[in-house]
Amino acid sequence: MARDQYLVLSALGADRPGLVAEVTHYLAERRVNVEDSRMAILGAEFGIQVLVSGSEEAIAKVMGDRAVLETRTKLGVLMRRTKGPEERRDAAVIACVVTAQALDHEGIVRAVAVSISRMGINIVSLETTSYNAPVTGSPLFRLEATIDLPQGVSVAQFPGQMEEVAEHESLDIDVRPLV
User: What is residue 88's predicted lDDT score, i.e. its pLDDT?
Assistant: First the structure.
């Protein structure tokens, strides 16, 4: 039996109703399966990242017809072949969620990412949002990242290692294993 191939499709363009339906219809027409996805409006742009799987022929068809997708949707599209999710994951890591909250100010994402990187820890996903406090209207910021703690870094040690960035950036940081 032939093994599934994998492809990451990234697309970006002006937001409008129907984009998700159009992109997923394009993929279904070419007989590939959506394995994982992230889609969001950022400003007035809509961004899509999709991991798809399928036969070699189906993946080649998706890649070969890229111009069709761009014409239909008016999105800029990038595609890259990749490995399947099971080939990437190291069984020796511990998946954790890091949450940081603070009054919004420049440099929070950079400070947290640099601190995590210096410990040799991989960020698997990261999402941020800015919002106003309910009563005061003060600008608040929240970051949530999924990380892979490698062997040698325990869930108990990691929060202590984040204290410096938390103090410097006035962050409340919480770390918990992903269950």
Answer: 66
Secondary structure of residue 113 in the 3-state scheme: helix
| pLDDT confidence of residue 103 | 96
Q: Which residues are CB-neighbours of 124 under 8 A, at least 6 positions away?
A: 95, 145, 146, 147, 148
CA distance 110 to 95: 21
| Structure-block tokens of residue 8 | 């990451």
Task: Give exposure, 134-145, as e/b (b: 16+ Cβ within 10 Å).
Answer: eeeeeebbbbeb
pLDDT of amino acid 96: 92
Q: End-to-end alpha-carbon separation of the chain, Å? A: 33
Query: Positive or negative CA dihedral for 143, 144, 150, 155?
Result: positive
Per-10-residue mean pLDDT for the chain, 179 residues long?
A: 86 98 98 97 97 97 98 98 80 87 96 93 95 94 94 80 91 90
What residue ranges define each of the domains in the chain, with the CATH number in brackets?
A: 5-87 (3.30.70.260), 94-177 (3.30.70.260)
Report H helices in 9-84. Answer: 19-29, 56-64, 66-73
